[in-house]
Predict the structure of SnoaL-like domain-containing protein.
Amino acid sequence: MTTDIDYDHLLRSNLERVFNERDDDKRRAAIAELFVEEPVMYEPTNIVRGRADISDVAGKLLAQFGPTFRFVPDGVAVGHHGLAHLAWQAGPEHGPVAVTGADVAEIEGGKIARLWVLLNKP
């Protein structure tokens, strides 16, 4: 039996509930819901393993860029056969876009197993 995956909901939830969430407890709860037990996140300069470390990276990123910094989806996530892509942009709320990129996720059992964070060149 094949389960239909709502790729857009899953990747948008990751942006909003993980990478825009400043409350550590809420972010950890979202990661437990959205990610497999032992996820891996590939950043351009780092490989992050495990839910706790992904939460730490997200929290430090938000702290580094200030209280109004946030990620905003750019379009709708697309995916099939367990692979999904969502473009995004980020910067201060109501401010200039500081960075653009995309998340590419491998989905297993309806959850994110591996996440690649791809940054566009400025």
Observations:
- The mean pLDDT is 95.
